[in-house]
Structures are given as C-alpha cells and as structure tokens.
Design brief:
Elements: H1 9-14, E1 19-20, E2 40-44, H2 50-58, E3 63-68, H3 71-85, E4 93-97, E5 113-119, H4 137-146, E6 147-157, H5 160-172, E7 175-183, H6 198-205, E8 210-217
Parallel strand pairs: 1-4, 2-3, 2-5, 3-4, 5-6
Antiparallel strand pairs: 6-8, 7-8
This protein binds S-adenosylmethionine (SAM).
Length: 220
C-alpha cells in the first residue's frame, strides 16, 4: 500500500504515550513496558491498525505490540486506536517503528512473545525478492529466538503463491502447521474469528480467496 508523506506523523507519534520511540532500547524487556504480566502478542506490519486496535480493545487477557516500518501507517494506527478506545485507558497496546527484516535487533529470548500475527504482508513475487517475505525461513528463524516454545504464528494472505510456498517455509524453519482454512467472504463458515484488516476487506470486496494458517513453534 502506497502512503503519502505526512509531516504530522512523526511529531504526533513522538507525543503519543503508547508509541515506543526507541524500540532497540526495549530489547529483552518488552514485557516490563506494560502494567501487568499478561502474555504478549505481536503484529508484524500493522498498516492502518484496525485489526490490532479492535483486537486489543476486545481482549483484556493479552498485551499487544504492533509494528510497522512506515510512520504514516503508525500514525493512522495511533488514530484508529484512540478512536476505538475512546475514554478507556490504552494500557494493553503499544506501537513501534521497526524494520522487520532485522527484527532481532529489537527482540531477544527474554521477550517470550506468545503469538505473532502476519496479516496480508507484501507477497514479493519475484524470485530475487522472496527473501523479503515475512514468512521466508530466514524470517521464521529470527522469530524462533523470541517466540516461546509452542508459541503460534497466525498468517493470512490473499496471495496464492505466497501461501503455497509458505506451507513449505514453516516446516523448514521448525514450525508445525496446526490449522489451515480458506474463505471468500466475511460471513463464510470457514473464516476464523479474527477482526478483519483493511487489506482483508479490500481483497474480499474484489472476490479474492483468503488463505489462513496457524503454525506452532516446535522445540528443536
Ligand atoms: C500490505 S500492508 C498490510 C497491512 C495490514 N496488515 C492489513 O492487513 O491491512 C503491509 C504492511 O507492512 C508494512 N511492512 C512491509 N514491509 C515491512 C518491513 N520490512 N518492516 C516493517 N513493516 C513492513 C507496510 O508498511 C504495510 O503497512
């Protein structure tokens, strides 16, 4: 998704109490940034943030962290979060700016992430770019370091080739695929009970089939 430069984004994020300005400094101590010890769930590439804002608001049993590389996206995610929470304190959701390709600069084994959501990431179809996929084994191996044993990765995509190749990527990196489904409408009986993302709504409107899987980290 292309998004225009917004001069308001960075200053607004800098003043936002639930935005983490220096995520590298939080490495190894993400759990201490919340007011409780609830399990931490992470969304990679949150875009405009509808999914994370609504999911976190409706689920007080987990802490949430949503990351994206674009300040303009994080700014929209911040606005979405403020709208969804209204007067309710935003105490179980943080936002941060990260380059996911180098995610181990921001997390280590002390972070004990319980679940990772990858929603409609860029498919990178050209052979020379496939290593940039968020489900490429190089990435899945990085996530292993901070994802708990038995922790889950929840993955949704409209891209058939990315999904098919990811079915090989997960086992190759030591994950077992424990759930798998596909659907082409919001009210389909095969659709998992997750909040829709902006991209999901867009793809479903154009009649695309969405593929979904859950993969569990195996102990090696
Ligand atoms: C196609 S959009 C999907 C957004 C959202 N998850 C949804 O389903 O509507 C992909 C998002 O991932 C972010 N992204 C892509 N590559 C990234 C990277 N290497 N590091 C961090 N964020 C990235 C983009 O800025 C964009 O917001």
């Amino acid at each position: 998704m292309r998004i225009r430069y917004n001069p308001e984004a960075r200053p607004a994020l800098a003043a936002c109490p639930f935005y983490i300005d220096d995520p590298k400094a939080a490495k190894g101590r993400w759990n201490t940034l919340y007011k409780n010890d609830l399990p931490l769930w992470l969304e990679l590439g949150c875009g405009k943030g509808s999914f994370i804002a609504n999911t976190a608001f409706n689920d007080r049993g987990h802490n949430y962290l949503a990351v994206d590389i674009k300040s303009e996206m994080l700014y929209l995610a911040m606005k979405n979060t403020e709208n969804v929470y209204g007067q309710t304190p935003i105490d179980n959701l943080l936002l941060a700016d990260m380059e996911i390709m180098i995610i181990n600069n921001y997390f280590d084994e002390e972070d004990h992430i319980d679940r990772i959501f990858i929603n409609f990431c860029n498919p990178w179809p050209k052979a020379k770019h496939k290593k940039r996929r968020l489900t490429h084994p190089n990435q899945l191996n990085q996530y292993r370091i901070f994802l708990k044993d038995g922790g889950k990765i929840v993955f949704r995509t409209d891209d058939e080739e990315l999904f098919t190749e990811s079915l090989d990527y997960f086992p190759a990196a030591g994950y077992e695929i424990t759930e798998r489904t596909s659907y082409n409408s919001l009210d389909s009986q095969t659709r998992p009970p997750l909040v829709a993302t902006e991209h999901e709504l867009m793809f479903l409107e154009t009649g695309k089939v969405i593929n979904y899987l859950v993969a569990e980290k195996c102990v090696r």
